[in-house]
Design goal:
Low-confidence stretches: 1-12
Radius of gyration: 20 Å
Shape: globular
Strand content: 15-25%
Oligomer: single chain
Bound molecules: zinc ion
Helix content: 25-40%
Number of strands: 12
Largest sheet: 5 strands, mixed
CATH class of the largest domain: Alpha Beta
CATH superfamily of the largest domain: ATPase, nucleotide binding domain
């Protein structure tokens, strides 16, 4: 495998640490700054084939000839931490058999410490470290977008579970155990109710003629009854899941991010109403749900946090 370029003589002043974010539509990588955050990343579209070559080239480019001593990886899931592999459902080349990303990077940058986590875990880790959950050792993160992902931090540590996929909140079954079929093989998961595309489909089936989640949110804000109903349905589902999971893991804070979470009051009002309705247990008094602060770069920031863990 290609080694990182050695660069110009005397250009390197020491080792650098890199963060890599592997998503279904784009790849991003950056050098990690001394404060633990990634520098301005380089982004490329995820190619339909040879995704590894694209990751490797991206790492080589951001390292810019400097020696690398650590790489943190955020990847769309599922991930398999014990195997060091990823099998993102939206990267067809890797989805079936998985790709051993940790070994590939260890071969590419020998001696580097390589850490991997799913993008939902990375997103909540980033919010915990630098964003809306700063200073809160117990929190839930949910990403509401094309799909629904998530992650859980307990006692200041990300919860991984057996394979690294703990906190995958998108497949909590909420409202309707006989609901729509889901990509996971189940039915009625919150993802089938509250993700952007599923909300759009529901609205279309009820007479709304728009095309995407952004337009759905705009129409809801101007009072379109079907758009409002679609976002109310999504918001209530998300709020119910967050209250249930908060009760399960005893966390006082949930952070909600992802493109579809930016739908404003038509989503958030029913979300918070559902939370108020369902978070009734005494230890959940004061349970808060807040918008994410770090935007679409949060998984890359979380990837950077993986290599910056002092307890590691
Ligand atoms: Zn599902």
């Amino acid at each position: 495998m290609t080694q990182a370029k050695t660069g110009e003589p005397a250009a390197s002043t020491g080792f650098v640490r890199l963060a890599l974010d592997i998503g279904g539509t784009k790849l991003a990588a950056a050098v990690i700054e001394p404060d633990g955050r990634p520098a301005e990343p380089i982004r490329v579209p995820t190619p339909p084939s040879d995704v590894w070559a694209a990751c490797r080239d991206l790492l080589t480019e951001v390292a810019a000839g400097q020696p690398v001593d650590a790489v943190g990886i955020s990847s769309a899931g599922p991930v398999d931490l014990p195997a060091g592999s990823v099998a993102p459902i939206n990267i067809p080349e890797w989805a079936a058999d998985g790709f051993p990303i940790v070994a590939a990077i260890e071969n590419h940058v020998p001696g580097a410490r390589v850490r991997l986590a799913g993008d939902g875990v990375c997103a909540v880790l980033a919010e915990h470290r630098f964003g809306a959950a700063r200073g809160e050792p117990n929190c839930i993160g949910m990403v509401v977008s094309t799909g629904i992902g998530g992650g859980i931090i307990l006692n200041g540590r990300p919860v991984t579970g057996r394979t690294g996929n703990a906190g995958h909140l998108g497949h909590v079954v909420v409202v309707d155990p006989d609901g729509d079929p889901c990509t996971c093989g189940g039915r009625g998961c919150v993802e089938t109710v509250a993700s952007g595309p599923h909300s759009v489909r529901w609205a279309q089936a009820h007479g709304w003629t728009g095309a995407d989640g952004k337009q759905l949110a705009e129409d809801a804000r101007t009072g379109h009854p079907v758009a409002l109903a679609a976002l109310e349905r999504a918001g209530r589902a998300v709020g119910s899941v967050l209250a249930s999971v908060a009760a399960t893991v005893d966390a006082p804070l949930a952070v909600v991010g992802g493109g579809f979470s930016l739908s404003g009051a038509p989503l958030w009002d029913p979300l918070l109403a559902a939370v108020a309705e369902h978070a009734g247990l005494s230890f959940l008094h004061g349970f808060r749900v807040v918008p994410a602060e770090l935007g679409s770069g949060s998984s890359l920031i979380g990837a950077a946090c993986l290599v910056d863990d002092p307890t590691d």
